[in-house]
Amino acid sequence: MEDKKFKRTLVTAALPYANGPVHIGHLAGVYVPADIYVRYLRLKGEDVKFIGGSDEHGVPITIKAKKEGVTPQDICDRYHNIIKKSFEGLGISFDIYSRTTSKIHERTASEFFKTLYDKGEFIEKTSKQLYDEQAHQFLADRYVTGTCPHCGYEHAYGDQCESCGTSLNATDLINPRSAITGNVPVLKETTHWYMPLDKWEPALRKWILEDHKEWKPNVYGQCKSWLDEHLQPRAVTRDLDWGIPVPIEGVTGKVLYVWFDAPIGYISNTKELLPNDWQKYWKSKDSRIIHFIGKDNIVFHCIIFPAMLMAEGSYQLPENVPANEFLNLEGEKISTSRNWAIWLNEYLEEFPGKQDVLRYVLTANAPETKDNDFTWKDFQQRNNSELVAIYGNFVNRALVLTKKYFDSVVPAAHELTDYDRHTIEEFKNVKETLGDNIEHFHFREALKDAMNLARIGNKYLADTEPWKLAKTDMARVETIMNIALQVCANLAIAFEPFLPFSSQKLRHMLGMPETDWNVLGSVDILQPGHQVAQQPQLLFEKIDDDVIDAQLKKLERIKQQNIIANFTPRAIAGPCTPDDFMKLDIRVGTVLECSKVKKADKLLAFKIDDGLGGRTIVSGIAKYYQPQDLVGKQVCFIANFPPRTFKGIQSQGMILSAEDAGGRLVVIGPTGPVKPGVQVK
């Protein structure tokens, strides 16, 4: 890749389904790294275009529409606007963010299909596919659920298992069921057109395995695995009423398969952006195409879409596909269906002005080589200990000291010491490693390089102690503060691809002229006599525990809602005779006193009026009740259990409770007042 020279770069980011907002998994896997890369190229003055858009023909959209009783277009319009606005809010700097329901996309995708059809690049096949007899329709992959044949996950979709990530065909599933009616589907014949991927396997093997060994190991390895298992023809059309109609005369009720339609969206969106110049980005040999995707899209962007481009014949193939792995949330896999996610639109509302904090944390934890985990505690720690305490602290110290000693005017540098020269050399060297890491898609390491600049600045101020020298040697203080301010200016440039909002804020405080990447490492960005902000502001603010606790409680509520939603009663226990039940003496008692048992978090001690002189019962329900809330209530208890001792307290029975769908224990009692001691029959 280093030897190749390109005049321009086209960067695409995977098209998100417009059936819901985007979440942090999407951001960490695709959009933040793509934006870092594009902003870096722009800073270098390169010709780059950043293409995005919503995928609006996926079956998940029709499922959502059916569930809400609206049209698929209603769903697309709603979520396309939410997603577009959210991306803008986080500073994802697309040159265009369009959609696959646009007229230009329908025309482009139809023409692409027709070109391949006319060239004889498709195979027409009649096969048996799953059909719902009650719904009177063939079932698209997402309308089929069942057990994954690879990992045994019982809720896999017909196109992919969300648990193990394996791509599937609906007929692969064990015990398949229709997601529309819940019925067991039948196999019924239907005719479709197929892309003969096996025809392009030799060309793909050479292009990937020989010509692109520099690709990330996770991408290269997955492609090799697919190719080694040998490619098979894959359908490019579906029996569906939502999508781009198959452009063949006389064909009705069939649309282009979304995996065929969606990547063409990159082309149609480029056409929309550059109606006269789009071809040079897609068809010129001196153009570089980079696809940013998540690992679940590797096969589509590295094998299927390139095979389509090879078959068409006039397009350039992607130069790189730097796919990331998955980001988990608090140790669990992010799941849109279970609402286990941090949604970008909600984050922007709940954390106003903290776009860069999320960008920073997602980059620092980016799942570049393996799955990684987002936790709210780590989010807080990185903000407070890194952005605030290192980066923000250095900038604030430099500006405050400049205001104190020089009325916020950049002083001149005088004779440099060896330590000055060493510090300058250190931050000059950051430019090369930082740029090299971004060029090779190592964004986590690049972010560390940028933060290292702030560490260098902090150490320089701590070691030189200008506040002490101000009493005896102001000329030396002038040199120190000049260097410190040059580091600040360098930080504004180095962090621009990662943290655009704070970089803009810092540029404003420094009154920086427009600069580009080539200036990074310079010691004369701010000239002596230049005015900087007289009222410097903090770049970042500490995030308190209560803010994080609120987010953790929100996730806990979601977890409980999922438990309740997925509750299924336990199987009935083995047979029990009336004689067995009659052995239990179940009575009603009134709670006179209730208190927590010392050194036992789960236990409560009850004083019960049982109508027979009273008794003490110890129960493990402390997690679910406050003691004072139970005083005066009537409860059912088993009176004839032999006494047992808990933490030195003798318990004379067992209070009855039911476990609800969320795992909470609920004390059982009569619906109305009764005399203590009455038996339950």
From TrEMBL:
Cellular component annotations (GO), alphabetically ordered? cytosol
Task: Name where it's found.
Answer: Cytoplasm
Q: Report residues binding Zn(2+).
A: C148, C151, C161, C164
Q: Which PROSITE patterns match?
A: AA_TRNA_LIGASE_I, TRBD
This protein's UniProt keywords:
Aminoacyl-tRNA synthetase, ATP-binding, Cytoplasm, Ligase, Metal-binding, Nucleotide-binding, Protein biosynthesis, RNA-binding, tRNA-binding, Zinc
Any single biological process term in GO? methionyl-tRNA aminoacylation
Q: What cofactor is needed?
A: Zn(2+)
Which residues constitute the signal peptide according to the record? none
- What catalytic activity is recorded? tRNA(Met) + L-methionine + ATP = L-methionyl-tRNA(Met) + AMP + diphosphate
TM helices/strands, residue ranges: none
| Positions bound to ATP | T336
GO terms (molecular function) for this protein are: ATP binding; metal ion binding; methionine-tRNA ligase activity; tRNA binding
The UniProt entry annotates the motif 'KMSKS' region at 333-337
List, for all copies, the residue spans of the domain called TRNA-binding: 580-681
Write out the residue ranges of the motif 'HIGH' region: 16-26
E.C. no: 6.1.1.10
Q: How does it assemble?
A: Homodimer.
What this chain does, per the record? Is required not only for elongation of protein synthesis but also for the initiation of all mRNA translation through initiator tRNA(fMet) aminoacylation.
Q: Which family does it belong to?
A: Belongs to the class-I aminoacyl-tRNA synthetase family. MetG type 1 subfamily.
Note the HAMAP family from the entry. Met_tRNA_synth_type1 (MF_00098)
Q: What is this protein called?
A: Methionine--tRNA ligase
Gene field:
metG
